[in-house]
Amino acid sequence: MSSIFINITKSGALEKSPIDKAVTRVAVALARQRLQGALPAGPSLEITFLLACADLQPDFEGMRMGGYTADDPVLRFHAAVPAQLAHSTLAPRYVAAVLDDVLGNAHDYFAERQIQFDSPAWRRVFDAAAVHGEDLSDLTEAALPAV
Fold this sequence. Notes:
Elements lengths: L3 E6 L8 H18 L8 E8 L10 E5 L7 E8 L9 H22 L6 H16 L13
Parallel strand pairs: 1-2, 2-4
Antiparallel strand pairs: 3-4
Helix pairs in contact: 1-2, 1-3, 2-3
């Protein structure tokens, strides 16, 4: 079974912001799916959300990808989140769009290298996680899984 890793790089000013909550909810949903054995076999994925604000700016725009090797079968993505999304009601949709881009890029990357990657299964996993990322109302520390 593969794994999924979600990271957030942010300033303290964005703690509990809509984008922080949306990423956290998706990470929790993905962790639950991993614990339930719902992740497909094959390479793992890692997504780092770099949240921009006045005191912290990513050095690029959009998304970067790389780092995959046979010895370390994790395809890594860095998503630079624009500052205007930090407190936007569109934050959950942005996180879902990042997941969609990650899936498309991973599919293309692995297809070019003829590496088995179950895109339909990952689509189901990401779609389920995105639904949880939409509802920010009940995010509390108690909702986080003990991992």
